[in-house]
Specification:
CATH topology of the largest domain: Aspartate Aminotransferase, domain 2
Structural class: alpha/beta
CATH architecture of the largest domain: 3-Layer(aba) Sandwich
Shape: globular
Bound molecules: pyridoxal-5'-phosphate
Strand content: 5-15%
Largest sheet: 7 strands, mixed
Helix content: 40-55%
Number of helices: 14
CATH superfamily of the largest domain: Type I PLP-dependent aspartate aminotransferase-like (Major domain)
Number of domains: 2
Amino acid sequence: MNAIDRRNWLKTAALSGGLTFLGGASALAFSQPSPTTKTSLQDVAKLNSNENPFGPSKRVRQAITNAFDDACRYPSMVFRALLEQIAATEGVSTDHIVITGGSTEGLKAAGLTYGLNGGELIAADPTFQSMLTYAENQGAYVHRVPVDEQMGHNLAAMEARINNNTRLIFICNPNNPTGTLLDKNELQRFCERISEQAVIFSDEAYYDFITEPDYPSMVTLVKKGMNVIVSKTFSKVYGLAGMRIGYLVARPDIAKRLQNNVMAMTNVLAIEAAKEALKDDEFYKFSVAKNIEAKQAIYKTLDDLELPYVKSHTNFVFFKTGRHIRDLMPAMEKENVLIGRPFPPFYEWARISTGTMEDMKAFDQGLKKVMG
Ligand SMILES: Cc1ncc(COP(=O)(O)O)c(C=O)c1O
């Protein structure tokens, strides 16, 4: 099989295995299993998991194909080069980096590290749940602090929950599912002050979609030696959600503790994919531009229907339909559009991911039909 044939074979195999993949994700209790009765992704606008439908890029596909030769080896063989590449990208030394199987594994490793032995965590509500539910399973207590009226983090209310058992404060910025972005000065001041009392975890899965100029990553605070952990992922802007690779950035002593709680790490194909993705600037810019275009299309649909929504700094939009999400999801699924999912207490809201313009058209037609 030449490289192109092998790629086509992989693509066909992946499509025909679509159901297995979806089922597998829920079985693994991924952060956001999205129940669906669909058995294939063909003819479906899959807009329920904040993926990037344009990935992997051509260059990355080639790198993955080439990497099969090394798939009989353990990742340690190719791991070091990626570690160095990420460290250079982030401007830190390699002992600040922990490579994980998707950033989910990093989130869980932190939940375990800080949640054990009566540790308490503080997070917004609603926010991304992976770390929080995992920590709760280990016996941690999670303080869930409702978002403010603009659907953003209420940092003052979060601070008010700090007590002697507080080990970690989870800040998902931009936030999933609300799409909000914290004011950069407010965030920075909060992290600088509060990190003296507990570790701040900044989940930056959607950082690349922020369009505000010079918006800082909290890696700047890691570099200052603060009690801050940052998670990043190859799942979103790089379009590699199915490969399962992400990383944490933290002070070396913190990184070492987290590394000890990583269970599976990642794999050879994902490592080669990530190496190439970091070099493929053209695809990165393409993804960012496509996301902006698709988000405008979502806004247009919602404006046409006069439905309220939160201005998003991510690759999804949180909007209010006034219909219970448990009714809306199956109704949209009948129109071949998969949307996300209950985010208590916002049952009359839905989350829609950006997709191809074809997907956006399906969403437009589907929602207009369903909402009457
Ligand atoms: C805020 C946030 N963090 C982390 C993740 C996990 O992504 P992954 O494990 O694919 O890196 C997601 C996935 O949707 C997310 O929304």
